[in-house]
Amino acid sequence: MTIDSKEFFKQRMQLMEAGDVESLVSQYADDAEVVRFLGVARGPAEIRAYLVGLLAAHRSYRLVSLDQMQDSAPSLIWEATVETAAGSVQVYDVLVFNEDGQIWREFPGVQGYWGAS
Question: What are the structural domain ranges in the chain?
Fold first, then answer.
């Protein structure tokens, strides 16, 4: 399955800004994993908890700019600047999709933080 990377990114950012956790969770396969240095979230329940925590930590999430994007099916990577309640953050995401077009693996991260001191 081919993913429209720009449309997927646009929709993802709108869902993040709206705090729509259930719609975000629906983008993941049942056997999906979100892999971070702090641990791995496996399956819908753990991914839901991860997203709730992420959005609560930021308290707001608004796209400022898409800085870089590269796709190579079945993978998509981007770097973007988002504005949060704590200030501007440069985020990146590496996604690997399954054959049904759902996220199978995600490797998220934050590259920089320029918030209030």
Answer: 5-112
Q: What angle do CA 44, 49, 41 make, to 5 degrees?
A: 60
Query: What gap in Å lies between CA 54 and CA 49, rounded to an integer?
Result: 9
pLDDT digits (tens, 9 = 90+) for 2-15: 789 999 999 999 99
Burial 58-87 (b: 16+ CB within 10 A, else e): beebebeeeeeeebeebebbbbbbbebeee
The pTM is what? 0.90
CB 7 within 8 A of CB 69: no
Considering the segment(s) 5-112 as one domain, its CATH architecture is: Roll (3.10)
> Distance (Å, rounded) from C-alpha 93 to C-alpha 5?
12
